Amino acid sequence: MKTKFKVGDKVRIVAKLHGHDLKIGSVGTLDVANPKHNWFTIKASRCILGAKEIELVSSLSHNDKIRSYLESGKSITPIEALDMFGCLSLAQRIMNLRDQGMNIKTDMVTTATGKRIGKYSLIKE
């Protein structure tokens, strides 16, 4: 199976890797790519990844990235969205996703500095 990944691509983990410390949402750069055999490694990770476990970082819009992240069962804050996806306006992305029919709840949380921010998660039906 031919894949679109090559050495140097910036990729994000989109599936749980058993026995490894890479988490869903973490980003790395491919340092070995063997598309013929459908496996890849990320610099310093010491683990083999399959094509179904990674996505190109630049291939998805912020809405798509956040939708995928929420659908994986995780919650997200504006600080995390900026760090993981480079998204400066999470509230706007959440509004777009709600307009597309996603059932997203907002919980207000207090940061270590005392600031209150929204934490978004998908409502389980």
Task: Characterise the protein shown here.
The chain has 125 residues and is α+β, with helices and mostly antiparallel strands. The chain folds into two domains: 10-59; 62-122, Arc Repressor Mutant, subunit A (Orthogonal Bundle). Helices cover 22% and strands 28% of the residues. It contains three helices and seven strands. The strands form two sheets. The chain has a five-stranded antiparallel sheet with strand order 4-3-2-1-5, with no helix packed on it. A two-stranded antiparallel ribbon has the order 6-7. The longest helix has 10 residues, at 62-71. It is elongated, with a radius of gyration of 16 Å. The model has no long low-confidence stretch (mean pLDDT 84).
List the topology elements:
Layout: E1 10-13, E2 27-34, E3 39-42, E4 49-50, E5 54-56, H1 62-71, H2 78-85, H3 90-99, E6 104-110, E7 116-122
Antiparallel strand pairs: 1-2, 1-5, 2-3, 3-4, 6-7
Helix pairs in contact: 1-3
